[in-house]
Amino acid sequence: MPHLTESVTWQALKTNVASLPHMREMFASDANRFENMHLKSCGLMLDYSKNRVNSETLSLLFKLAEEADLTNKISAMFNGEIINNTEQRAVLHSALRSQAHQNIQAEGQNIVPEVQQTLAKMAGFVEQVQSGQWTGYTGKAITDIVSIGIGGSFLGPKIVTQALRPYWNKLNCHFVANVDATSICEKLAGLNAETTLFVMSSKSFGTQETLTNTLSAKEWFLNQGATQQDVAKHFVAVTSNVNKATDFGMDANNIFPMWDWVGGRYSLWSAIGLPIALIIGMDNFKQLLSGAFDMDEHFQQAPLEQNMPVIMGMLSVLYSNFHNAQSHVILTYDHYLRGLPAYFQQLDMESNGKSVTLEGSRVDYSTGPVIWGGEGTNGQHAYHQLLHQGTALIPADFIMPLQSHNPLGEHHNQLASNCFGQTQALMQGRTFDEAMAEMNNSALSDDQKQLIAKHKVMEGNKPSNTLLMDKLTPKTLGSLIALYEHRTFVQGIIWQINSFDQWGVELGKVLGNDVLERIGADNDADELDSSSNALINIFRNGKI
Ligand SMILES: O=P(O)(O)OC[C@H]1O[C@](O)(CO)[C@@H](O)[C@@H]1O
């Protein structure tokens, strides 16, 4: 197989991209453009017509995907092959949302039964806590869940519970991730130890932030009048390292397992999702899984040309590699989805922020872009300016439910009109003549008009996808998140990288621990670089 960027298809894409007219012209010359460039699946509708593509671009992108053996690579992931080659692990988050009768093999055994057993254990626990049968040390029912974890053991549960606010039962939930004591102190300040349940989530059970926060939570708990024997009623753990958790003092009955074949940033579907289930109930949690399962089926079965994650992944490759786009923005037109950009940022950047191929060669093309974003319409009064008129090309995903959970007057119509209006403005832009025409009735001099018109010109031709759903439900949210997981996978396959390890962040963990030792040492640091030594010593002195 030729080197990726030297392949005939890659070169043909370069030629195609250079020859395409402005999107405005492509819309004008093809009344069926939307008809031909949208698809519906799993409760989602993707409109990808506002992208810099014609039918040839799309064919070439699918050809590139075929040449990367994408279809077989998808099967390899779902079949439990060891595709995470640096950690020698299968990648089976899809097994967490599989159906009970399936047989999915990891390391020679069917893992579906243990997935089902864990779901049953979660269901029993959720029922006990929600019904008030599970009581705290003074016999009172639990009112507050505090989830302690970080990275993949935190952001999924936080963003999903935030997104599914309309489905909350009577329990309150709080998330602590940062080791900054302010985070846990602020959370604990308003809580009653008698009615608070801590869920400690750590796949490795070795992450500094999570261990420190859990110890502080336990100390707070004991300082409120509880005893060591009461701990089991108030602390449960989710981990793949059961031995470490019991050594730490967790009651063996209170440990919910997860497995090596689930990557942290793909783990909200496992027992890491326990805080979600406690807050929205097990039935809703299963709906979330079922939405993701539907997307798994679609991803495996739909032909590449009608495959939502494939289309989105290949469009992202197009912009990263043929338009030099360095970032990608996620714009959610739904207040409940305001956290989703951060979640997709973790998912995509921790997965595809790589510069070495699976075989260990340095890539000579761009890989994962910076993912960022926020909620509409707020961003329209801030960074959208750069999207419209800045020098960088930033492809955008607009995400919006058609029905609001809070219908109120004209609000939703206005929200939708802003969402659609933005995609239109990005695509068509505004020409100099249009800008001049807008000033027809103005008293400005011709020179002034010309000057202002130059500033009002918007080149347009800025790409966007629009993703719609009828309503934000646990099921549609499950499909949406799985869509982005698979989109990330597709990109990784084309770029020939391992999307499932994270050696960069691991180094940060190791060096952080090393610095911590030096901060606590008897003598000043002098063995590191001059900057690091100085920063440590200034910190030890407590004064700049
Ligand atoms: O669940 P753990 O083992 O505490 O790890 C937390 C997070 O740390 C990382 O290893 C690095 O940030 C993530 O992949 C993981 O989700």
From TrEMBL:
Its EC number is 5.3.1.9. It is an enzyme of class 5 (isomerase). It is found in: Cytoplasm. Its main location: cytoplasm. GO terms for biological process: gluconeogenesis; glucose 6-phosphate metabolic process; glycolytic process. One of its GO terms (cellular component) is cytosol. One of its GO terms (molecular function) is monosaccharide binding. CDD domains: SIS_PGI_1, SIS_PGI_2. It comes from the Bacteria. Gene3D superfamilies: 1.10.1390.10, Glucose-6-phosphate isomerase like protein, domain 1 (3.40.50.10490). It holds the Pfam family PGI. It catalyses: alpha-D-glucose 6-phosphate = beta-D-fructose 6-phosphate. Belongs to the GPI family. Catalyzes the reversible isomerization of glucose-6-phosphate to fructose-6-phosphate. This is Glucose-6-phosphate isomerase. It comes from Shewanella gaetbuli. The gene is pgi.
